[in-house]
Amino acid sequence: MTAWLEWGRRKTRPWSEQTLRSYDYALRGWAQDFCERGLTDPRDVTSADVEAVIASKTDWNDSTKTQRLNALSSFYKRALKTGAADRNAVDCERPPRTDNEWPMILPEDFRRMRALGVRDVREDALLLTLALTGVRHDELLGIDLGDLIPNLPGIGIKKAKGGKKREVPLSPVAAETLRRYLPERPSTNCPALFLQANGKRLTKRVLSRMWHRWLRDAGLADSGYVVHSTRVTFNTLLAWAGFDRRTVEELMGHGTRRDMNPKYTRTDMPRKVWAVATLESALLAPGQGVSADGPVQVASAGVQVSGGCVEPGVPEHLTQRVEVATALQHETRERMPQVVQGAAFGDP
Length: 348
Hints:
Elements: H1 2-10, H2 17-36, H3 47-56, H4 62-82, H5 107-117, H6 121-133, H7 137-141, E1 148-149, E2 154-157, E3 166-169, H8 172-181, H9 204-217, H10 229-240, H11 245-252, H12 269-283, E4 304-306, E5 309-311, H13 316-335
Antiparallel strand pairs: 1-2, 2-3, 4-5
Helix pairs in contact: 2-4, 5-9, 6-8, 6-10
């Protein structure tokens, strides 16, 4: 098992640390279950044994079953190539895949979280960075001071899923908030951008507690919002605004479609700057796109610059779709309130 995980860490497109931890946890669980059945050699395990373990796990939901089976199947695929196994024991049918429906954060709710939830400039910088860059929570926690790109301004995401790296521009409000946070950041040897009160790197647990408090203080504890909802919101609003797939994919760190020739889907940094500025205007209250250094010069990308404010002029069709989404979510909450219990994170 150790050799398999090490292979996953060193292959051309390495697994993320989160995937490695997930696979390690899953394989240890399988090993324990098989040992209890007297199976200590991967070659002795059959599909019937796997199905028996699955049947005994009455507390596993379909998502957990799929994750555990995927981890075991990946292990056996590698074992077949190295000669450690002569067949893939995972021959049972996976549970039907269901799309996770994490709710998009309504602009009015996001403004409530900022106004009533966040307590200081550090928390404001955290929330804005999550919402206005579309980063995954583990990417956010992995950002170091050296990853900031002052001239853009933006952030270099180096600890991304699948080992992919990317640069994400900061909107004017996000950049200004980070500039105000940096002087208040505790002096420490830790290179992390966001720190805990003890001077150590911010952890997933601390971010989870913070997220729950933001929702509670904003009166949104039953909204169903999770940390991953910021990423869903980022993707949804950019798609509704009509930005091309390639721009959205690169900003979010998604793989591009293999059936589409890159030369027909080129994007550039000005268009990405335009995208995050448009998102900012849609998500925040109007007139908040002010930079301490004056107007942000991105007019060539289509952003209107006026009086020190970045006003991308949110497309009318985007405004209409946000209004429809707001009405639908309000109606859903009235009929069937969603009570959040447990984790604040939507992604595994």
